[in-house]
């Protein structure tokens, strides 16, 4: 360190800032005497200072705000905009900030459930990396902060002077904002705006145009079906409207009248949807269309009675060829059984089209699925074209490519919220060529990084708006709290921008976007048969409270003409089998097909900067904080790969590196990777993490594999490796029988009340021969939970809800690798003993009656509550961790570190739950704060508690309603009814005699037919 | 006080000395009165006067003299966790017309009309890991004074009780209320 060296060669610093060991003056330091004097002085000052407390001020309101009185919870209904599904949300608001998102039970799409991404919208609102000011590219080529008004004026000027095209790219919008976007785009030329979504389902819409004459995504009503055939369509994860499909699926798949609906899934990788399927067929990418052809052939051959079949008979020769090819991938009898089940089903439906994939094979699969739906008569029933999905209006990949190619210096592009520089990296250069790129958004993402001007807009939870996920389902958005920063709503920014460019969209002085919204809703009220007796005011108010205006009258008239015009377009070109990779020496590069998929958490990557999203494990793989290549062991052997080795994959369009996860849940000739990671910008949690799967997909024509539109990738071992941060070390049960299945044929023979005899967590469950401690007596309540594993699809919404409700900290990748993730509730997947089926086991604290954690606590911090809960008292806990070591369910978490809540993420903290510090054990409380709130409310209203009134966060959030919470002492309660009557009941590790208060209902193994 | 004649002071000097003695005596007497007064003030009165607030509001006058009910200004105590401070609107129910020229009230009105909140100093508080709910205690018939003392005698409110766990548990025991840890700690 030559720079630190003193001129005379002596090293300074020794003795500086403190006394030398001898107390002599050393350099510029102080003597011991001075040091002691100083120390004493500072000590005296500290000692004599009056004891002060922070935050001891009470701010009075000036006028009482009855909508949000201080210290009380208020719910604001709004619409989730984390994906195009548009579910209804209730935001819990308290003292000017929102702390929790819940499902809106009145919303026809989500029906009270909310997915993990919807829960994480709060972390989007409070994202510490959010754009706070406008940015403009300065002289040095860097983005520099400028006042918003300046930036709008500059942007307007540049737009007004742009001589060429003005292209507007937005994420999918409907309603008022879409109208503003269209008018904005129209003011600068006749080029229509592009509503760009990374997952736009082009093949599905194309197929529906070919078969039904309507390039639309219909409304699926899976709850009316008894058989679902999913052709690589992961409809429980990200596909179109996942929360809606989750409750629909749970309903059709539920055990009722001695039977359950059946779901078959065909695809190249075992996804979460595949894990929930009764039959899962692993085929190479693109071969799902061969299976579809075989099924269609069987349906046509069997279904003479159905009139529509007439036109389909001509297809039989083509289908026969394809069906024959399918047998290369799947044994004939499995296909035969699948086809028979589909053909025999009363109301089957076929879903096709993977997310983010386009090309002839995907189109052909979608066409065959459409034909299947037409042939089996589900159109108009399970496939409802009367209410097409908003995604039908999304721009296709070709539209985007066409628009972005040929941009030049004189052109300007306005990008609203969408992030094409990340989701279509091959088009980023096209975007850069534009003379002006104006970005309106909330995050400093890849598109913002290449923009000339960045205008920050309100987060959807801060702004007015509306969104129409299905025709006639109008969701309303209202500000659930005041904007955090000096931002404006996207609509207002567009209006300002147009005005600044000299082409105002509304007359000067007219109200802004909010006024346009009201105008549209006045019109809607009129269309809906007048605003009603209360006038528009009451219509508007009711819509705000309900979360929107939902047309309930069926639009049957539009369903009638949907007799399919049969214009089938299955290509007859012979498909090659799984790519025959050339024999290569071990460790050398290997060619494989690439299969991208979207997980329920990361989706298309727009939420990747949120700690909750990164720290909650990717379903099935249970890996956090990164993405990976799924590699089959046979392929791995050819490459000489071990689990965690980093592989580079090169396609015609790009190259990425990611660790390999070796597993047999993937087609041997394929590697798969999830979308969502590999950001170069977006923020601290996202940037530089994992790999971007979009980069490999970019140009579908180059290097295309033979039977899919997906690129072939060349894999090579890099020689480096990493350890995954996983949350489930094993998915095997090792004979412990944790997650149980019951055969449908057995279940049918069982009457109510039969099955496993339970050890009740009540005095009745006390057995002097087995118990060491006396039973607990309960006077008023004994809380318990029933979890229907057959309904659980493993989405992890409960886990995310728990993070939000209980102030659970995000620990980061390193700590998760150390096994220190803090999640109170986990949802690990487990294989059945024969590895035939997989399921999920939501695992909150079991609130045992003979809890092993309680007697071992030396300080009585772990105690039994009067209502049966295992309470952990943080202020008493000294952190011995004995309780954790003695817990057989491993549901207790120890705070190893003091976690910093980066501002403004601390605004999300639930004020009714203690924020724990280092050295404290913590665990699930059944949301005691909610129990107390309901109990006190009932007491104040002088009435008994109603069953179902208390909903812990996990229970509220579950899209499939797998959880039931209630009082065991109430003989009428739902939880009591279930555990008394349902033959599927069991307790986890019952043999330990812990007497858990969480009861599980077995998954049903559908062995019929 | 030596008796050497040469050093005996003159009459005038002696008078001055006596005067000085009187002065010293008077000063000592004064000091005694002041300190007695101070002790009286601190012992008797100061203990009943709380922290200074931005606007001098007297609970003694409003609750004692004018006999206003606690929940007139703190209605939220009845049904929610925190009693809170009333919105200025509540003050204006009376001070729209009453005593509008009295300087502190004029200041209050100024706050109200300009829409600026008054930032009061918090007097009663429990630690962050204690979750106290007013509503359920009032519902069970607990008198406000049990924890807050007799505010009818307090011009500026003082913390009448030390809110430690013993204080809570004693009352819970006397009334046969719950001893469940989860009631207050979560």
General description of the model:
- The complex is a heterodimer of chains A (1009) and B (186).
- Chain A has 29 helices and 40 strands.
- Chain A is an alpha/beta fold and 1009 residues long.
- Chain A folds into 5 domains: 2-48, no CATH class; 134-192 and 395-465 and 486-516, Rossmann fold (3-Layer(aba) Sandwich), CATH 3.40.50; 202-392, Dimethylsulfoxide Reductase, domain 2; 590-726, Barwin-like endoglucanases; 741-1005, Alpha-Beta Plaits (2-Layer Sandwich).
- In chain A, the strands form 12 sheets. Chain A has a 7-stranded mixed beta sheet with strand order 6-5-17-16-15-7-8, sandwiched between helices. In chain A, strands 21-26-23-25-24-27 form a 6-stranded mixed beta barrel.
- In chain A, helix 8 (272-276) links the parallel strand 11 (262-267) and strand 12 (279-282).
- In chain A, helix 6 (202-212) packs across helix 12, helix 9 (288-302) crosses helix 10 and helix 9 (288-302) packs across helix 11 (332-344).
- The termini of chain A are far apart.
- In chain A, 54% of the residues are buried.
- With 186 residues, chain B is mostly helical.
- Chain B has 2 domains: 7-48; 59-85 and 120-183, no CATH class.
- Helix content of chain B is 47%, strand content 2%.
- Chain B has 8 helices and 1 strand; from the N terminus they run αααααβααα.
- Chain B has helices spanning 11-45, 59-65, 70-73, 88-95, 103-114, 134-139, 144-148, 165-174, and one strand at 119-121.
- In chain B, helix 4 (88-95) packs across helix 5 (103-114).
- The chains are: A alpha/beta (1009), B mainly alpha (186).
